[in-house]
Design brief:
The chain has 2 domains: 60 residues, Arc Repressor Mutant, subunit A; 140 residues, GAF domain (Beta-Lactamase). Helix content is 42%, strand content 21%. It contains 7 helices and 8 strands. The strands form 2 sheets. Strands 5-4-3-8-7-6 form a 6-stranded antiparallel sheet. The chain has a two-stranded antiparallel ribbon with strand order 1-2.
Amino acid sequence: MTAETSQTLDRGLRVLKLLADTDHGLTVTELSNKLGVNRTVVYRLLATLEQHALVRRDLGGRARVGLGVLRLGRQVHPLVREAALPALRSLAEDIGATAHLTLVDGSDALAVAVVEPTWTDYHVAYRAGFRHPLDRGAAGRAILSARQTTEAGHPGYTLTHGELEAGASGAAAPLVGVSGVEGSVGVVMLADAVPERVGPRVLDAAREVADALR
């Protein structure tokens, strides 16, 4: 800790991170051990976070992330969208296909930013807010591939055809190395197959967006 930082705020944020990393919650004792502070400090931290609905405690006394975090999370999408738009515009114009940024929303893939090319005679209509299961479509499959990739290598791009719309093909690559953001960048086009150069170009765009979000 430095003179410019708040120890209490730091501990509170560490509590939220610890709770976010568990599905079954943590007890006061467990949090006390992980933080290296006494139980009284943990009680005070939890009481403050509960007042803001950032933490809730179940009947067994285990602390979990509260619904207030969702309200904060809704503000993340506009910030992520703004950071991604330059790379998406470049991708859409270069490929001549609709480009999109997709983030995980529960068990779904949610398109949070979409850019359509300006010079094509026709292209796939794809709107922000469109959602689909993670295991269907290039955007969701790219995200799942990143989850399954080991430290031995980095995930590449994913190609699909006709999974979300008849006659449409997609290519997507996951965002890699962005803390707290799980998503992908991709394009969708009316074609029987994705041209060879599209996959690597999508991969480059995903790296550009990841760099903008770091």
